[in-house]
Amino acid sequence: MPGKPPSSSPTRYVYLGPEGTFAEAALSRAIATAEGPRAPRPSVAAALAAVRSGDADAALVPFENSVEGSVPATMDGLADGDPLVITREVFLEVAFVLAVRPGTELAAVRSLASHPHALAQTGRRLAELLPEVTPMPTTSTAAAAAAVAAGEVDAAVCAAIAASRYGLECLVDDVADNAGAVTRFVVVERPGPLPAPTGNDKTSLVAVVGDRTGALLDLLREFAVRHINLTRIESRPTRQRLGVYSFSLDCEGHVAEPRVGEALSALHRLSDDVRFLGSYPRADGRENRPVPGEATDAAFTEAEGWLSRLRAGEL
């Protein structure tokens, strides 16, 4: 699949819809209105497929949540299919409301719907408010709000933006079990020129290791010996057979940095497969850990020069 032209920048965005999702709010935070049109897609898979087919230049999809962890649809969608790369990350504080049709009282709520992640993050509060109601899962929080507006269910756990978009009222303004929950979204594009290093970057990748003793330890060692800090690592089944797993991970640094490049080269030798998912500016408000002197770019450059002189017989 051809990559995007080197001089192009995203102009057509898609996001996990429908309208009124947290993904739409995150996309509004990530880009300026003038950057181009944006359109919802019914699922993460559909959003990624739009980018792969060229129907969109970039997609914003949820990647992980501070309460519920990773979003499997995104992790698997990036690990499989034609390559896509992350070019940006966006962090959004997630606040949930209990939305109903105007005039509906709490005692009249007999049915409730929302996305499974939202239900998991509001379970205790909902049990207090609506102990007799069994929540129903939907594809998104906005889809739940739309179902309320259509009269299909009585209430939805959703974002305030979704309640407003569908003409609902907020019966309870905050139904989250954990204050300050944050969702991390990523912007993905077709392969092309990477964002330039900023000095405070992340690199994401997926490595498939075989069913052998010490495979994960070998993978981790390549980062440790180069003083590369991992900010996330988790396993996913490859769906090939039991015992064969892929490891999705984020590390500090940019692939343009010698130590990160060396680590990825080593993983390529050690693993059954490595999929590079991008190097991009860090956006979580934290700074990468200081690099000791022996792991700086200058140290790697000096060592490479020394080795080159040895190979040339310049002792």
Description:
With 315 residues, the chain is α/β, with parallel strands linked by helices. Among the domains are: 76 residues, Periplasmic binding protein-like II (D-Maltodextrin-Binding Protein, domain 2); 122 residues, Alpha-Beta Plaits, CATH 3.30.70. The protein is 30% helix and 27% strand. It contains 9 helices and 15 strands. The strands form 3 sheets. Strands 1, 2, 3, 4, 5 and 11 form a 6-stranded mixed beta sheet that branches. The chain has a 5-stranded mixed beta sheet with strand order 8-7-9-6-10, with helices on both faces. Strands 13-14-12-15 form a 4-stranded antiparallel beta sheet, sandwiched between helices. The model has no long low-confidence stretch (mean pLDDT 88).
